[in-house]
């Protein structure tokens, strides 16, 4: 029997289903773990900046901002206020746009 016949057929996604597929609501956040000790301070700063940029990118995508050119600094900062994080720096705003660019 071919290996392809053993694989279960994947469930339809929103884009391929004949009718809308009910999507799960956001689940509870994952339990936080402490960051590994002994790294240089710059590593922690960069790590936290990436996490913040990813949260902002997800919030922007959820709000209908799909293209990096739509995500101006003002839009990103207003989204940050909306989701309850400190206003991002110019570097973090640039990183948000980069995440949106490379998610395609």
What does this structure look like?
- With 104 residues, the protein is an all-alpha fold.
- The chain has a domain at 40-104.
- The protein is 48% helix and 0% strand.
- The chain has four helices and no strands.
- It has helices at 3-6, 41-62, 73-83, 90-102.
- Residues 30-40 have a biased composition (Basic and acidic residues).
- Residues 1-40 are annotated as: Disordered.
What's a concise summary of this model?
Residues 1-40 are annotated as: Disordered. Residues 30-40 have a biased composition (Basic and acidic residues). This protein is mainly α.
Observed structural traits:
104 residues, mainly alpha, extended
Secondary structure elements and pairings:
Blueprint lengths: L2 H4 L34 H22 L10 H11 L6 H13 L2
Helix pairs in contact: 2-3, 2-4
Poorly predicted tracts of residues: none
The number of distinct β-strands equals 0
Order of helices and strands: HHHH
Q: How can the largest sheet be summarized?
A: none
**Tally of helical segments:** 4
Round the mean pLDDT to the nearest integer and report it. 81
Strand content: under 5%
Helical percentage: 40-55%
How would you classify the helix and strand content by structural class? mainly alpha
């Amino acid at each position: 029997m071919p290996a392809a016949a053993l694989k279960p057929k994947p469930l339809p996604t929103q884009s391929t289903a004949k009718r809308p597929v009910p999507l799960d609501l956001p689940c509870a956040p994952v339990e936080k773990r402490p960051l590994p000790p002994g790294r240089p301070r710059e590593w922690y700063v960069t790590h936290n900046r990436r996490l913040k940029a990813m949260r902002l990118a997800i919030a922007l995508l959820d709000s209908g901002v799909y293209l990096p050119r739509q995500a101006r600094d003002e839009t990103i900062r207003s989204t940050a206020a909306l989701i309850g994080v400190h206003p991002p720096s110019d570097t973090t705003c640039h990183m948000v746009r980069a995440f949106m660019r490379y998610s395609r």
